[in-house]
Specification:
Blueprint: H1 11-21, H2 42-51, H3 54-62, E1 82-83, E2 94-99, E3 105-113, E4 120-129, H4 134-142, E5 150-153, H5 159-167, E6 169-171, E7 174-176, E8 181-182, H6 189-201, E9 205-208, H7 212-218, E10 223-225, E11 231-235, H8 242-247
Parallel strand pairs: 1-9, 2-5, 4-9, 5-8
Antiparallel strand pairs: 2-3, 3-4, 6-7, 10-11
Helix pairs in contact: 4-5
Length: 248
Amino acid sequence: LITTTPYDLGWPKQRIWDRWKAKDPDVDVIRFDSTDNPIFPPEEFERARRDLPGWKFDMFYRAIFTRPAGMIYDSFNETEHRCPRFAIPKEWPRYLGLDFGGVNTAGVFYAKDPKSDPPKYYLYREYKAGGRSATEHVKHLLDGEPGIPFAVGGSKSEDQWRREFATGGKVGGQDVPGLPIRGPEFADVEVGIDRVYGAHKRGQIIVFDDLPGYLEQKQTYARELDKNGEPTEKIEDKETFHLMDAER
């Protein structure tokens, strides 16, 4: 039993609300408005309805998961852009986006359907780990992959990370090949966000529905709101969204 107000679109939505909406017999959601509590003041409910943004009122006072105004990837449709896992043909080209970090190195893997037009990329794997050397990261990144993916990662200034990953070495006596990683074409974060946004809008990214880390970040990646509940340019808690940076 979990009792909570839905504050954002994180794991309670992914693992509970969405399963309930999909008629999962093992999950039940009982939602109620604040005024169903007999001691909650009706005037407070009406004040919130009047003064708060609609999404915030629905989440905090009606227990209805609603997309916030500042959500960055509102072009991601959780119904159309997700699919159950399937066996990806080994010959499909593979791509890897990486975000380097000593505490958190993150990666997202895509497979391109060669018959799709426009190109369609299936996001089939997520990676997030810390406390490993570059060679150890490469070993774990390549485990289970049919070959070395086309990899892009880091910012323009992170050449040392790319050199470390490309060197190769040994882990536990096992030879680990180097992983060549290309630098980004551009440094501007907003340009990268716009490209991912457009890919969602065109339906070119399809995400396997068993990747909770990615799906949670996708639906909580948002801009800070001002005192009127309107989005600003600043990304809220940007340093925690490593999978979104890897994708970009």
